[in-house]
Predict the structure.
Amino acid sequence: MAAFILRRLLSSIVVLLCAASITFLLSVSQKGGPFEKEKLSEKAKLEKLRQHELDGPKWWQLVRYQKRLLQGDLNVSLRYKDRTVAEILAQKLPNSIMLGACAFLIASVGGVAAGFIAAMRKDTWIDVSTMFCALAAISLPTFITGPVLVALLGLWLKLLPIGGFGTWQHLVMPSICLALPFMAYVARLMRNSLLEVMSQHHMRTAKAKGLDEVTTLMRHGMKMAILPVVTYLGPMAAYVLTGSFVVETVFNISGVGGVFVNAIQNADCFLLTGAVLVYAALIVFFNFIVDVLYTFLDKRIQLHA
Amino acid sequence: MPDAPDNRWKGAPPSGWSVLKQNRTAMTALVFLVVVSAAAVIIPFFLPDAIKQVSEESFAPPLSRSEDGLRFHLLGTDVNGNDLFHRLLTGAQVSLGVGLVGALVSLIIGGIYGMVSGYAGGRVDGAMMRFVDMLNAVPSLLIVMIFVSSFDAYFKDALDAMRLWGQAHRWRTVEDIASALIPYSRIAILVLSLGLVQWLTMARIVRGQVLVLKEMAFVTASRAMGQRGWTILWKHLWPNLSTIVLTCLTLTIPAVIRDESFLSFLGLGIEDPAASWGSLLRDGAQVINPIDSKWWLLLFPATLMSLCLLALNFLGDGLRDAFDPKSGS
């Protein structure tokens, strides 16, 4: 176990460094450089570039940036003067994590429950309508469901506040909106894998020894059926994070998504790389958690990185 | 046996196409999609020219006539006085076009990659699939956003240089193509990069199928006849893959459309005056407010886009049920 964790840690650092380098290279190779939009004389621009260590050939800029990164320094934002990237991200990150965590919970719990019910009542109207709603939820993007929810619940029925962040009421609509497609996907996965497990012999044996339907599934079926869902949870965490962009825009929440979009539009390369690093780190972390969880759920799987 | 029962079923098992024809939802979806794409291409030709321009009346409600009586706004107008019906149709052209071309790009890359990986097998296959796994771990939309914003300007310059080069060498066609492409450069690079990130699923599915197919007798036979690898891939494996690829393609189109609209919604995709469903929705979402709600700007694009995405997904699911009943989910 310890060897596994150590190896994963090392490979994660390499992955993160690669992601950061690619992002950095892409963003500094933007035409005209980061100070294009500011009206500066040629000399002042050069001076500014040198001050931020963005002069010279691209690889040399990259090497100096990497050196900083390895010391744990994300550098300063080019746009928001004299604020460090770490400061900005630390301020915005809690909001995004909060939203993402709520959506993640709703999606996983709700999806498993919906899939369970659909599988128990296979081929009845409950199953058909659940699966229809699931396909609808998968095909509709958040930037449709978001504004429609706002118009319905916020403006028309006046049940929930339409924007901002703070109390739990503010959190309801955005997290549902963000969770919907993932919940649907989990429900479909859960239903299919439960149906497959239900057709296996050990389930028949369990029923033969006198357990009722629900207990059989709970005690013997779920453990197998949940595996595909657990595998999906890792990527899902990543998609929830990137999906939060639109939700943050629609519901006026100041989170990392907004920082990312602004950084792209302003060619703010340090801030952009910082945001990408945060996302990549979270993704790597979730995948790691899933791998570890797997060993507890399925004893046949051995860890090797 | 004279007394064998007469009602014994003698037909062949149904082919995928007949299964698909039985599937009512999928067929409805198909008809709907054909109608929408035909409408998006044909109707703009017949609309009066007056309606295609920016006008004074912003936020005219649906079914209203302009003051001089020249224009009739079926679905109302937006902030610039553009007719929403016309913009919705041109937006459909852009969105559906982007979806189709992006999916085709992903088909070409993913198909070739998957076929080579599956056919080569062994270590090559392992390495190629590890690479796909690695790319799958990267949040692809972030990369698309950065890529588009970094290379848009270069791409425009390259097109401009091409136009000038055509002018200098009196090569009319090159000049025309380049100048026709310049307004669409952002869309072009968007399509390209979306296709570039969407090929992973396609590659994996094609590879899985090739792994099965290549063990079959007809492949061994054609190898025994001395055909080369590429010929076998193209002549014998590709036709056998076509239905699975078609299914995957149908499911990739809505994914590309969604990603494009996502970027346009954030203001990083299609730019005015061109419109796509995403940018229309962005306009619509910006004007909803409690006091004076411009509901039509949100309702119509949202409805059309959701219906199209639903139809594409239903069609894709129907195709999958018809041709590949084993793989569910």
